[in-house]
Amino acid sequence: MLRRHFLKYGSVFAAVTTASLPSLLTAKTTDLSDAASDGDADFDLEIVDVDVELIDGSVVPMYAFAPVGQPPSIPGPILRVKQGDVVRIDLRNSSTRSHGFQILGQSMSAVTGLAPHDDDGEDKVRIEFVAGLPGTYFYIDGDNAPINRVLGLHGALIVEPSNGYADGKTRKKPMPYAPTVAPACLKDLFKALGEKTINGLPARFPGKAWEPGREYVWIFNQIDPVLCRRIAAGDNLSASEFLEEFHPRYFTINGLCGLDSAHDKATCPTGHVGEPALLRTMNAGLATHSPHIHGNHVFVLTQSDAYGAPVYQDNLFEHDVWLMPPMMIKDVLLPFTMPPDLPPAPWKMAQEKYPLRYPMHCHNEISQTSAGGSYPMGLVTDWHIDGPLATG
Amino acid sequence: MTTLYRPISDPLEFDTFGCHPFENDPATPDRTTRQVFLRRQVSDWNVNMKDGSQLQFWGFKDPDISGSDSPWPSKTIRVKQGQIFHCEFKPSKGAHTIHWHGIEPTPMNDGVGHTSFEVKSSYTYQWCAHQAGTYLYHCHKNTVLHFEMGMYGVLIIDPTTTSPDRNNPQYLYDPFDPASTTEAPGITVGAPYAAESILVFDDVDPRWHKLDHNAGMCGDDVGLDKFNPTYFLINGVHNGKTQTDTRTVTKATAGRNVLVRLANASYSKLYVTLEIDAWIVEVDGRPLRSNSAKGAFGRPKLLPKGTRLEVAVAQRYALWIPKIPRGDYRITGSFHHWVTNRKHFDGEAVARITAA
């Protein structure tokens, strides 16, 4: 079985339903039925130099990953695999500089010092590994750290479970993790999703169970246009010089700012009450972000360890602000409940209409600016509750 | 070279998202009978800084209380879980909003310009908090500046029940089942307390306090990417005085329980350490307890004394100290740069709990 899972950040559903997106976005996640875990996952990536147009129309030089023959993007394409897959990633360097490649927390193998190719097509390198613990991982260019990564060479590798159900053989409650190693509280949460009543009493998450593929990837980054231009002009900054001088002026989510991210179907979560969504949140940059969501709290499900591997949480904190230091990855669950702080029945929401629109933004508000002003054209997106309770 | 172009957007929408948010004075939609009513207006005043200089601050004042013109942080609001809350807000000096941070009402009552509207002259916010805990309220207009200018206060939702323990009569939250010992392992369910310390940490960059109400909103570079704080405070008290000021020193009776509520209103990485063991019992208005039938999947977590707790910007934590022994305990906030993680010069502020 050969699968190529290139997906635009961050929603699978949005990607498959948006006709205007290029063809590379049309891949769909496989279902979580008992797929054989002897599959292959092959990817063919290229590193290129790009110019990036920012929210204010200014242009900065950066680097980007591209599936070979496809347009580049920052972040790079989502690499989606299944636990147990043999993953092969071929990499070619079409940039003017040397680069590297590694997947943090998943594979010990790393490519470093890959020279620009010489057009004969034979100078690819390959990383091969067996996909391990289900969860969210960074792939990056680890060379010249953190410069190449912050300048655009980062993306998400998603490992799906081969048998991801929270409720064992009943198989009505999918979860994005391996149930054999998931703590009880994590499984309990996914089991509770979609239940109208528990023990005969009204429960908190009526509607649908979480559905595989109902997820969004949010990758945060910061851009210092001065350093981008200096590096493109040939300035060989050391890592310590870069860290010392790094002064971000643009703050992005999936490479977008402000209105652009709020409009991006792959970034802005939408759905009805009772359609819980997974948010895979990642910080590729150097600043510590404090994402704050309005309308619903989120459950923090995983947190990456020092190597970048997911740690399934055995104590689920429910936050409206979650801490995202550099290179942190946290999967959080947005339950898509009715906003909880409405007057109780018999009050009804009648004059105010769906969709209910709420923002998610970093609360270190410096990140809400671009180029020294233009609030809120920074690290913000919206999410929408499109309508009342959906029932599974 | 390939250029990654930004998506095409409607110029009018771009303008209303950022530069010119929708301003309005609508009637409260789906307005119902209130159980709590209060008013807020906007005021500005000068604050004496540690070095003798004066800086302008903005905030919310309560027009029903005389002498409340210079509240920084703005006056704490306490209401009970389940009460229908109305706040009549009459801004002045341009449009403002109130965002009830952590409370999740309808978008019209959420106080965000680009998803609803900014209040031109009057609006009555309506919500009904379903969960006791620690929240904030703040202006969400040009938030990067207005939050820094001091337009925030603490919002506490108190539970409807009181503790049966006469020594510790306040509850942090209503227990699902007061008799349960598994619901919140490690602590007494409900986190009953007799003394409470509410600590909001902030940092101030004096340059920002000379900026205009709408500074930077329409594309001009006013330096809002440069934040160089030189003052560090708790509850508006300068770090030189936080160990003696009554606003930051909590007196407790030895042997009783103490609740510490922390919030980070700075733009720094904030590390908080206590000189005494404490239990994290609530995060962001959500008590930590285990009851999957009720939709709770956490449990209290011990924060051993001397352990650094990083509090994200605008995050809240409630810490519970059982039967505090006689003594004097410092609560130290350390402010670090949000990119370099270097500690700011003078970037430390220390509050105290004195148990006698």
From TrEMBL, chain A:
Which InterPro entries would you find in this protein's record? Cupredoxin
- Family matches, as Gene3D superfamilies: Cupredoxins - blue copper proteins
Q: What is this protein called?
A: Uncharacterized protein
Protein species of origin: Skermanella aerolata
TrEMBL record, chain B:
Molecular-function annotations in GO: copper ion binding; oxidoreductase activity
- Family annotation (SUPFAM superfamilies): Cupredoxins
Domain Plastocyanin-like, chain residue ranges per copy: 69-160
**What InterPro entries does its record include?**
Cu-oxidase-like_N, Cu-oxidase_fam, Cupredoxin
Q: Which domain of life is it from?
A: Bacteria
The protein's name is: Plastocyanin-like domain-containing protein
Species, as recorded? Skermanella aerolata
